[in-house]
Amino acid sequence: MPLDWSAEQGRAVFGSLVGHILYGLILGVAYATIDKIWVRLFIQSDPLNREMEGPGLHILRSLGWGAVAGLVGGVASLPVMIATGVLPKVAGVDSSFGGARGLIIHLSVSALIGMTYGLLFRDESSSSGSGVAWGWLFGLIWWYLGR
Fold it and tell me: If you ran DSSP here, which 8-state letter would residue 42 be given?
């Protein structure tokens, strides 16, 4: 039987698509929660595998590296923002934040976004390259959301 790519068929199965997306979201959140609990109970509580530093220092280090990564991403996006004339609109409103004030606001927002990435995803990547790639994607999503 041939596939039906009509608009009527798309409307008829759209509800199940939304259901599958929500199911995937719930399953992903459940898996991540179970994984965090497993790691906390069976890996981080093992005295042989325990790190010598406390969790507060680990969080502060993640925030610091995230801020540095956010600043690097902010500096990398500056030539595009200057060439397109978007820098005065950096805060989402058409204002007179040109020049140094717009640059400072842009870099501050970039650092805050990098810090949120460092805080939310500090233990998720298996290597530095993977962390950089996922951080680039996180920054790209924020780039599109901020437009």
Answer: I
Give residue for tokens 């956010």.
70
What is the rounded CA–CA span in Å between residue 139 and residue 135? Answer: 6
Helix axes 99-120, 55-84, angle to 10 degrees: 140
According to DSSP, residue 141 is labeled: H
What is the distance between the alpha carbons of residues 127 and 122, in angstroms, rounded to a whole number?
A: 11
Q: Which residue has the tokens 């507060």?
A: 56
Asked if 109 and 52 touch (Cβ cutoff 8 Å), the reply is: no
47-69 confidence digits (pLDDT tens): 666 666 666 787 888 888 889 98
Q: What pLDDT is recorded for position 98?
A: 62
The residue extents of the domains of the chain are 1-50, 55-145
Mind listing the pLDDT tens digit for each residue in 75-103?
A: 988 888 888 877 777 655 555 656 677 78
| Helical segments of 39-127, H only | 55-84, 99-120
